[in-house]
Amino acid sequence: MTNLYIIIALLLFVAVIYAFWRLQKKHIKFSTRVFIALGSGIVYGAILQLIFGATGEVTTGAIQWINVVGTGYVRLLQMLIMPLIFVSIVGAFTKVEGTKDLGKISATVLTALLATTAISALVGIGSVMLFNLDGAEFVQGAAETTQIAALDERKEMVVDLSLPEQIVNFIPSNVFADLSNSRSTSTIAVVIFSAFVGVAYLGIIRKNPEDGAFFERIIKSLYAIVMRIVTLVLRLTPYGVFALMIKALSTSDFNALVNLGKFVLASYAAIITVFLIHMLILLGYKVSPIQYLKKTLTVLSFAFTSRSSAGTLPLNIETQTKALGVDAASANFAGTFGMSIGQNGCAGVYPAMLAAIVAPTVGIDVFSPAYIFTIVAVVTISSFGVAGVGGGATFAALIVLGALDLPVAIVGLVISVEPVIDMARTLLNVNDSILAGIISSKRVKRFDESVFNDDEAIIKSDI
Protein backbone atom coordinates (compact mmCIF):
# COMPACT_ATOMS: atom_id res chain seq x y z
CA MET A 1 0.00 0.00 0.00
CA THR A 2 2.92 2.33 0.76
CA ASN A 3 4.26 2.07 -2.80
CA LEU A 4 0.81 2.84 -4.19
CA TYR A 5 0.58 6.04 -2.12
CA ILE A 6 4.08 7.06 -3.24
CA ILE A 7 3.11 6.55 -6.89
CA ILE A 8 -0.08 8.62 -6.41
CA ALA A 9 1.92 11.41 -4.73
CA LEU A 10 4.43 11.41 -7.59
CA LEU A 11 1.70 11.38 -10.25
CA LEU A 12 0.17 14.47 -8.65
CA PHE A 13 3.63 16.06 -8.58
CA VAL A 14 4.12 15.34 -12.30
CA ALA A 15 0.64 16.70 -13.06
CA VAL A 16 1.50 20.02 -11.37
CA ILE A 17 4.84 20.14 -13.19
CA TYR A 18 2.95 19.68 -16.47
CA ALA A 19 0.62 22.53 -15.49
CA PHE A 20 3.64 24.82 -14.99
CA TRP A 21 4.92 23.82 -18.43
CA ARG A 22 1.56 24.79 -19.93
CA LEU A 23 1.75 28.18 -18.20
CA GLN A 24 5.19 28.71 -19.72
CA LYS A 25 3.84 27.86 -23.18
CA LYS A 26 1.11 30.47 -22.68
CA HIS A 27 3.85 33.04 -21.88
CA ILE A 28 2.58 33.73 -18.37
CA LYS A 29 4.99 36.10 -16.61
CA PHE A 30 8.04 34.44 -15.08
CA SER A 31 7.46 36.02 -11.65
CA THR A 32 3.82 34.90 -11.67
CA ARG A 33 4.83 31.32 -12.43
CA VAL A 34 7.42 31.37 -9.63
CA PHE A 35 4.89 32.56 -7.05
CA ILE A 36 2.33 30.01 -8.18
CA ALA A 37 5.03 27.35 -7.75
CA LEU A 38 5.90 28.72 -4.31
CA GLY A 39 2.29 28.60 -3.11
CA SER A 40 1.66 25.19 -4.69
CA GLY A 41 4.76 23.76 -2.99
CA ILE A 42 3.64 25.04 0.41
CA VAL A 43 0.17 23.52 0.02
CA TYR A 44 1.43 20.21 -1.41
CA GLY A 45 4.16 19.84 1.24
CA ALA A 46 1.81 20.66 4.11
CA ILE A 47 -0.78 18.12 2.88
CA LEU A 48 1.92 15.47 2.45
CA GLN A 49 3.09 15.90 6.04
CA LEU A 50 -0.44 16.19 7.43
CA ILE A 51 -1.50 12.88 5.88
CA PHE A 52 1.69 10.80 6.05
CA GLY A 53 3.91 12.56 8.63
CA ALA A 54 7.32 14.19 8.26
CA THR A 55 9.22 10.92 8.64
CA GLY A 56 6.63 8.54 7.21
CA GLU A 57 7.60 6.02 4.55
CA VAL A 58 5.34 7.65 1.95
CA THR A 59 6.75 11.12 2.58
CA THR A 60 10.34 9.85 2.59
CA GLY A 61 9.83 7.77 -0.56
CA ALA A 62 8.10 10.57 -2.47
CA ILE A 63 10.66 13.18 -1.44
CA GLN A 64 13.51 11.01 -2.73
CA TRP A 65 12.07 11.35 -6.24
CA ILE A 66 10.89 14.95 -5.84
CA ASN A 67 14.46 15.78 -4.80
CA VAL A 68 15.60 14.85 -8.30
CA VAL A 69 13.86 18.02 -9.50
CA GLY A 70 14.60 20.30 -6.53
CA THR A 71 18.16 19.33 -5.72
CA GLY A 72 18.88 18.77 -9.41
CA TYR A 73 17.87 22.35 -10.16
CA VAL A 74 20.05 23.78 -7.39
CA ARG A 75 22.99 21.69 -8.63
CA LEU A 76 22.55 23.05 -12.15
CA LEU A 77 22.79 26.55 -10.70
CA GLN A 78 25.83 25.57 -8.64
CA MET A 79 27.39 24.18 -11.81
CA LEU A 80 27.39 27.73 -13.15
CA ILE A 81 28.82 29.41 -10.07
CA MET A 82 32.57 29.23 -10.74
CA PRO A 83 32.33 30.01 -14.49
CA LEU A 84 29.92 32.84 -13.70
CA ILE A 85 32.17 34.29 -10.99
CA PHE A 86 35.13 34.28 -13.37
CA VAL A 87 33.40 35.83 -16.39
CA SER A 88 31.40 38.26 -14.20
CA ILE A 89 34.39 39.72 -12.38
CA VAL A 90 36.74 39.77 -15.36
CA GLY A 91 33.89 41.12 -17.48
CA ALA A 92 33.31 43.84 -14.90
CA PHE A 93 36.90 45.02 -15.39
CA THR A 94 36.25 45.31 -19.15
CA LYS A 95 33.12 47.38 -18.51
CA VAL A 96 34.43 49.96 -16.05
CA GLU A 97 35.29 53.37 -17.37
CA GLY A 98 38.85 53.36 -16.08
CA THR A 99 40.57 52.50 -12.81
CA LYS A 100 38.83 55.35 -10.96
CA ASP A 101 35.41 53.71 -11.35
CA LEU A 102 36.94 50.33 -10.55
CA GLY A 103 38.26 51.59 -7.22
CA LYS A 104 34.96 53.25 -6.35
CA ILE A 105 32.91 50.19 -7.23
CA SER A 106 35.02 47.65 -5.34
CA ALA A 107 35.46 49.91 -2.29
CA THR A 108 31.75 50.79 -2.17
CA VAL A 109 30.61 47.18 -2.53
CA LEU A 110 32.97 45.92 0.19
CA THR A 111 32.11 48.81 2.53
CA ALA A 112 28.38 48.24 2.07
CA LEU A 113 28.68 44.49 2.67
CA LEU A 114 30.85 44.78 5.77
CA ALA A 115 29.01 47.76 7.29
CA THR A 116 25.64 46.02 7.01
CA THR A 117 27.18 42.86 8.45
CA ALA A 118 28.28 44.84 11.52
CA ILE A 119 24.76 46.27 11.81
CA SER A 120 23.32 42.76 11.43
CA ALA A 121 25.51 41.46 14.25
CA LEU A 122 24.37 44.30 16.50
CA VAL A 123 20.72 43.60 15.67
CA GLY A 124 21.25 39.88 16.35
CA ILE A 125 22.65 40.63 19.81
CA GLY A 126 19.78 43.02 20.46
CA SER A 127 17.25 40.34 19.51
CA VAL A 128 18.80 37.90 21.99
CA MET A 129 18.45 40.50 24.73
CA LEU A 130 14.88 41.41 23.71
CA PHE A 131 13.73 37.78 23.85
CA ASN A 132 15.78 37.05 27.03
CA LEU A 133 17.73 34.28 25.34
CA ASP A 134 21.11 35.16 26.88
CA GLY A 135 22.23 32.09 28.79
CA ALA A 136 19.28 30.05 27.49
CA GLU A 137 19.55 26.26 27.50
CA PHE A 138 18.04 24.09 24.75
CA VAL A 139 16.89 20.48 24.84
CA GLN A 140 19.42 17.99 23.48
CA GLY A 141 17.85 15.11 21.56
CA ALA A 142 19.32 12.34 19.43
CA ALA A 143 19.64 14.51 16.32
CA GLU A 144 21.34 17.26 18.32
CA THR A 145 23.77 14.81 19.93
CA THR A 146 24.79 13.48 16.51
CA GLN A 147 25.25 17.00 15.17
CA ILE A 148 27.39 18.07 18.14
CA ALA A 149 29.69 15.08 17.57
CA ALA A 150 30.04 16.05 13.90
CA LEU A 151 30.73 19.66 14.88
CA ASP A 152 33.66 18.65 17.08
CA GLU A 153 35.38 17.31 13.96
CA ARG A 154 34.65 20.47 11.95
CA LYS A 155 35.73 22.61 14.90
CA GLU A 156 39.25 21.20 14.72
CA MET A 157 39.48 22.28 11.07
CA VAL A 158 38.50 25.86 11.90
CA VAL A 159 39.61 26.64 15.44
CA ASP A 160 43.13 25.30 14.99
CA LEU A 161 43.75 27.98 12.38
CA SER A 162 44.77 31.45 13.55
CA LEU A 163 43.22 34.48 11.86
CA PRO A 164 46.34 35.03 9.69
CA GLU A 165 46.22 31.36 8.64
CA GLN A 166 42.53 31.68 7.77
CA ILE A 167 43.35 34.71 5.59
CA VAL A 168 46.12 32.75 3.85
CA ASN A 169 43.54 30.04 3.09
CA PHE A 170 41.64 32.55 0.97
CA ILE A 171 44.59 32.89 -1.41
CA PRO A 172 44.50 30.32 -4.24
CA SER A 173 47.51 28.02 -4.61
CA ASN A 174 45.91 25.90 -7.34
CA VAL A 175 43.24 27.83 -9.20
CA PHE A 176 42.12 24.74 -11.12
CA ALA A 177 41.37 22.96 -7.83
CA ASP A 178 39.45 26.00 -6.61
CA LEU A 179 37.51 26.19 -9.87
CA SER A 180 36.29 22.70 -8.98
CA ASN A 181 35.17 24.05 -5.57
CA SER A 182 37.42 21.64 -3.70
CA ARG A 183 37.85 23.83 -0.58
CA SER A 184 35.48 25.67 1.75
CA THR A 185 37.20 28.90 0.68
CA SER A 186 37.27 28.09 -3.06
CA THR A 187 34.66 30.74 -3.86
CA ILE A 188 36.65 33.67 -2.52
CA ALA A 189 39.84 32.15 -3.99
CA VAL A 190 38.27 32.26 -7.47
CA VAL A 191 37.14 35.84 -6.78
CA ILE A 192 40.73 36.79 -5.97
CA PHE A 193 42.12 35.01 -9.06
CA SER A 194 39.51 36.66 -11.29
CA ALA A 195 40.39 40.06 -9.86
CA PHE A 196 44.07 39.45 -10.70
CA VAL A 197 43.08 38.54 -14.27
CA GLY A 198 41.01 41.72 -14.48
CA VAL A 199 43.86 43.91 -13.21
CA ALA A 200 46.22 42.23 -15.69
CA TYR A 201 43.74 43.05 -18.47
CA LEU A 202 43.77 46.74 -17.49
CA GLY A 203 47.57 46.73 -17.77
CA ILE A 204 47.50 45.02 -21.19
CA ILE A 205 44.83 47.31 -22.62
CA ARG A 206 47.04 50.32 -21.83
CA LYS A 207 50.29 48.88 -23.16
CA ASN A 208 48.99 46.75 -26.01
CA PRO A 209 45.43 47.81 -26.98
CA GLU A 210 45.20 45.20 -29.74
CA ASP A 211 45.84 42.25 -27.41
CA GLY A 212 43.59 43.82 -24.78
CA ALA A 213 40.73 44.22 -27.28
CA PHE A 214 41.14 40.60 -28.39
CA PHE A 215 40.93 39.38 -24.77
CA GLU A 216 37.90 41.59 -24.20
CA ARG A 217 36.10 39.97 -27.14
CA ILE A 218 36.89 36.52 -25.73
CA ILE A 219 35.48 37.46 -22.32
CA LYS A 220 32.38 38.98 -23.91
CA SER A 221 31.80 35.78 -25.87
CA LEU A 222 32.32 33.62 -22.79
CA TYR A 223 30.01 35.87 -20.80
CA ALA A 224 27.33 35.61 -23.49
CA ILE A 225 27.60 31.82 -23.53
CA VAL A 226 27.48 31.49 -19.74
CA MET A 227 24.50 33.85 -19.50
CA ARG A 228 22.72 31.87 -22.21
CA ILE A 229 23.21 28.73 -20.12
CA VAL A 230 21.92 30.72 -17.16
CA THR A 231 18.76 31.57 -19.12
CA LEU A 232 18.23 27.91 -20.00
CA VAL A 233 18.60 26.87 -16.35
CA LEU A 234 16.40 29.70 -15.07
CA ARG A 235 13.54 28.38 -17.20
CA LEU A 236 13.44 25.50 -14.75
CA THR A 237 12.95 27.83 -11.75
CA PRO A 238 9.19 27.22 -11.19
CA TYR A 239 9.75 23.47 -11.21
CA GLY A 240 12.72 23.76 -8.85
CA VAL A 241 10.95 26.12 -6.44
CA PHE A 242 7.90 23.82 -6.37
CA ALA A 243 10.01 20.77 -5.49
CA LEU A 244 12.17 22.59 -2.95
CA MET A 245 9.15 24.01 -1.14
CA ILE A 246 7.49 20.59 -1.00
CA LYS A 247 10.58 19.17 0.71
CA ALA A 248 10.82 22.10 3.13
CA LEU A 249 7.19 21.83 4.27
CA SER A 250 6.75 18.06 4.23
CA THR A 251 9.91 17.23 6.20
CA SER A 252 9.95 20.09 8.73
CA ASP A 253 10.00 19.02 12.37
CA PHE A 254 7.13 21.07 13.80
CA ASN A 255 7.71 19.69 17.31
CA ALA A 256 11.21 21.15 17.18
CA LEU A 257 9.71 24.45 16.03
CA VAL A 258 7.58 24.46 19.18
CA ASN A 259 10.51 23.56 21.47
CA LEU A 260 12.81 26.15 19.90
CA GLY A 261 10.03 28.57 19.01
CA LYS A 262 11.54 31.45 20.98
CA PHE A 263 14.85 31.13 19.15
CA VAL A 264 13.07 30.95 15.78
CA LEU A 265 11.02 34.06 16.61
CA ALA A 266 14.12 35.93 17.80
CA SER A 267 15.97 34.96 14.60
CA TYR A 268 13.15 36.10 12.34
CA ALA A 269 12.71 39.31 14.34
CA ALA A 270 16.41 40.11 13.82
CA ILE A 271 16.32 39.21 10.12
CA ILE A 272 13.19 41.28 9.47
CA THR A 273 14.72 44.22 11.35
CA VAL A 274 17.88 44.09 9.22
CA PHE A 275 15.73 43.81 6.08
CA LEU A 276 13.84 46.96 7.12
CA ILE A 277 17.18 48.70 7.69
CA HIS A 278 18.08 47.76 4.10
CA MET A 279 14.87 49.47 2.97
CA LEU A 280 15.75 52.60 4.97
CA ILE A 281 19.18 52.66 3.32
CA LEU A 282 17.46 52.51 -0.07
CA LEU A 283 15.33 55.48 0.94
CA GLY A 284 18.50 57.32 1.88
CA TYR A 285 19.71 56.81 -1.71
CA LYS A 286 16.33 57.97 -3.08
CA VAL A 287 15.34 54.50 -4.25
CA SER A 288 11.71 53.50 -3.70
CA PRO A 289 11.52 50.38 -1.48
CA ILE A 290 8.08 49.53 -2.89
CA GLN A 291 9.32 49.56 -6.49
CA TYR A 292 12.42 47.69 -5.36
CA LEU A 293 10.36 44.92 -3.77
CA LYS A 294 8.22 44.60 -6.90
CA LYS A 295 11.36 44.04 -8.96
CA THR A 296 13.14 41.68 -6.55
CA LEU A 297 10.31 39.44 -5.29
CA THR A 298 11.24 36.69 -7.74
CA VAL A 299 14.93 36.49 -6.85
CA LEU A 300 14.26 36.87 -3.11
CA SER A 301 11.62 34.15 -3.25
CA PHE A 302 14.05 31.81 -4.94
CA ALA A 303 16.74 32.62 -2.36
CA PHE A 304 14.20 31.82 0.37
CA THR A 305 13.23 28.45 -1.06
CA SER A 306 16.64 27.30 -2.35
CA ARG A 307 18.64 28.30 0.77
CA SER A 308 21.64 28.96 -1.51
CA SER A 309 23.13 32.42 -2.05
CA ALA A 310 25.49 30.86 -4.58
CA GLY A 311 22.68 29.13 -6.43
CA THR A 312 20.83 32.46 -6.60
CA LEU A 313 23.82 34.28 -8.15
CA PRO A 314 22.68 34.02 -11.81
CA LEU A 315 19.20 35.33 -11.00
CA ASN A 316 20.74 37.96 -8.71
CA ILE A 317 22.88 39.48 -11.48
CA GLU A 318 20.06 39.25 -14.03
CA THR A 319 17.70 41.08 -11.68
CA GLN A 320 20.17 43.84 -10.90
CA THR A 321 21.04 44.61 -14.51
CA LYS A 322 17.71 43.98 -16.29
CA ALA A 323 15.14 44.94 -13.67
CA LEU A 324 16.80 47.42 -11.31
CA GLY A 325 19.01 49.44 -13.65
CA VAL A 326 22.30 48.65 -11.90
CA ASP A 327 25.32 48.91 -14.19
CA ALA A 328 26.92 45.60 -15.16
CA ALA A 329 30.20 46.23 -13.33
CA SER A 330 28.50 47.03 -10.00
CA ALA A 331 26.05 44.13 -10.35
CA ASN A 332 28.79 41.62 -11.09
CA PHE A 333 31.04 42.81 -8.27
CA ALA A 334 28.19 43.01 -5.73
CA GLY A 335 26.67 39.66 -6.72
CA THR A 336 29.94 37.73 -6.61
CA PHE A 337 31.48 39.47 -3.58
CA GLY A 338 28.19 39.24 -1.67
CA MET A 339 28.15 35.50 -2.18
CA SER A 340 31.25 34.97 -0.03
CA ILE A 341 31.83 38.23 1.89
CA GLY A 342 29.67 39.94 4.49
CA GLN A 343 26.55 37.81 4.32
CA ASN A 344 24.14 39.62 6.65
CA GLY A 345 22.09 36.56 7.58
CA CYS A 346 24.52 33.64 7.71
CA ALA A 347 27.67 35.54 8.72
CA GLY A 348 26.07 38.45 10.59
CA VAL A 349 22.85 37.80 12.51
CA TYR A 350 23.29 34.06 13.15
CA PRO A 351 26.80 33.81 14.69
CA ALA A 352 26.24 37.00 16.70
CA MET A 353 23.04 35.56 18.19
CA LEU A 354 24.71 32.27 19.11
CA ALA A 355 27.65 34.11 20.71
CA ALA A 356 25.29 36.30 22.74
CA ILE A 357 23.23 33.26 23.85
CA VAL A 358 26.15 31.15 24.98
CA ALA A 359 28.45 33.83 26.46
CA PRO A 360 26.68 34.05 29.87
CA THR A 361 27.07 30.26 30.33
CA VAL A 362 30.83 30.76 30.69
CA GLY A 363 30.54 33.78 32.98
CA ILE A 364 30.73 36.58 30.39
CA ASP A 365 28.57 39.69 30.76
CA VAL A 366 27.01 39.97 27.31
CA PHE A 367 25.52 43.35 28.25
CA SER A 368 29.00 44.85 28.50
CA PRO A 369 29.51 47.43 25.70
CA ALA A 370 33.10 46.24 25.30
CA TYR A 371 32.00 42.63 24.76
CA ILE A 372 29.24 43.66 22.36
CA PHE A 373 31.85 45.57 20.36
CA THR A 374 34.11 42.49 20.44
CA ILE A 375 31.35 40.24 19.05
CA VAL A 376 30.51 42.74 16.29
CA ALA A 377 34.17 43.15 15.32
CA VAL A 378 34.86 39.39 15.26
CA VAL A 379 31.67 38.69 13.29
CA THR A 380 32.50 41.36 10.70
CA ILE A 381 36.09 40.20 10.21
CA SER A 382 35.05 36.53 10.13
CA SER A 383 32.42 37.19 7.44
CA PHE A 384 35.08 36.92 4.74
CA GLY A 385 35.00 33.68 2.81
CA VAL A 386 31.73 32.21 4.12
CA ALA A 387 30.52 29.86 1.39
CA GLY A 388 27.19 30.84 -0.16
CA VAL A 389 25.80 27.31 0.05
CA GLY A 390 24.09 25.23 2.71
CA GLY A 391 26.32 24.98 5.79
CA GLY A 392 27.92 28.40 5.37
CA ALA A 393 26.20 29.70 8.51
CA THR A 394 27.55 26.77 10.54
CA PHE A 395 31.04 27.48 9.23
CA ALA A 396 30.69 31.17 10.19
CA ALA A 397 29.36 30.29 13.64
CA LEU A 398 32.26 27.91 14.31
CA ILE A 399 34.79 30.59 13.35
CA VAL A 400 33.16 33.25 15.55
CA LEU A 401 32.61 31.00 18.57
CA GLY A 402 36.13 29.63 18.22
CA ALA A 403 37.66 33.12 18.00
CA LEU A 404 35.73 34.18 21.11
CA ASP A 405 36.69 30.95 22.92
CA LEU A 406 33.05 29.97 23.41
CA PRO A 407 31.57 26.43 23.38
CA VAL A 408 30.33 25.37 19.94
CA ALA A 409 27.69 22.88 21.14
CA ILE A 410 25.04 25.61 20.77
CA VAL A 411 25.32 25.21 16.98
CA GLY A 412 24.26 21.57 17.26
CA LEU A 413 21.44 22.27 19.72
CA VAL A 414 19.54 24.43 17.23
CA ILE A 415 20.07 22.09 14.26
CA SER A 416 16.41 21.00 14.24
CA VAL A 417 15.19 24.45 13.20
CA GLU A 418 18.19 25.27 11.01
CA PRO A 419 16.35 24.83 7.65
CA VAL A 420 13.47 27.09 8.71
CA ILE A 421 15.80 29.90 9.79
CA ASP A 422 18.22 29.35 6.91
CA MET A 423 15.55 30.25 4.35
CA ALA A 424 15.18 33.76 5.79
CA ARG A 425 18.94 34.12 6.31
CA THR A 426 19.61 33.34 2.65
CA LEU A 427 17.01 35.87 1.52
CA LEU A 428 18.76 38.49 3.64
CA ASN A 429 22.18 37.53 2.21
CA VAL A 430 20.97 38.00 -1.36
CA ASN A 431 19.12 41.22 -0.53
CA ASP A 432 22.31 42.67 0.96
CA SER A 433 24.33 41.93 -2.19
CA ILE A 434 21.65 43.60 -4.35
CA LEU A 435 21.66 46.59 -2.00
CA ALA A 436 25.44 46.86 -2.35
CA GLY A 437 25.07 46.84 -6.15
CA ILE A 438 22.55 49.69 -6.07
CA ILE A 439 24.70 51.77 -3.70
CA SER A 440 27.76 51.24 -5.92
CA SER A 441 25.85 52.07 -9.10
CA LYS A 442 24.51 55.23 -7.47
CA ARG A 443 27.97 56.29 -6.36
CA VAL A 444 29.53 55.96 -9.83
CA LYS A 445 26.43 57.67 -11.29
CA ARG A 446 25.56 54.78 -13.59
CA PHE A 447 22.27 53.77 -12.02
CA ASP A 448 19.56 53.77 -14.71
CA GLU A 449 16.47 55.32 -13.13
CA SER A 450 14.39 54.71 -16.26
CA VAL A 451 14.96 50.94 -16.04
CA PHE A 452 14.23 50.93 -12.31
CA ASN A 453 10.96 52.82 -12.75
CA ASP A 454 9.86 50.82 -15.79
CA ASP A 455 7.37 48.17 -14.62
CA GLU A 456 7.98 46.26 -17.86
CA ALA A 457 11.72 45.99 -17.11
CA ILE A 458 11.62 42.68 -15.27
CA ILE A 459 12.99 39.19 -15.72
CA LYS A 460 11.35 38.29 -19.02
CA SER A 461 8.41 35.92 -19.08
CA ASP A 462 9.97 33.83 -21.86
CA ILE A 463 12.71 32.59 -19.52
UniProtKB/TrEMBL annotation:
SUPFAM superfamilies: Proton glutamate symport protein. It holds the Pfam family SDF. It is found in: Membrane. The chain crosses the membrane at residues 6-23, 35-52, 72-93, 105-131, 186-204, 225-246, 266-285, 370-389, 395-417. InterPro entries: Na-dicarboxylate_symporter, Na:dicarbo_symporter_sf. The keyword Cytoplasm does not apply. It is a multi-pass membrane protein. Keywords: Amino-acid transport, Membrane, Transmembrane, Transmembrane helix, Transport. Belongs to the dicarboxylate/amino acid:cation symporter (DAACS) (TC 2.A.23) family. This is L-cystine uptake protein TcyP. It comes from Carnobacterium iners.
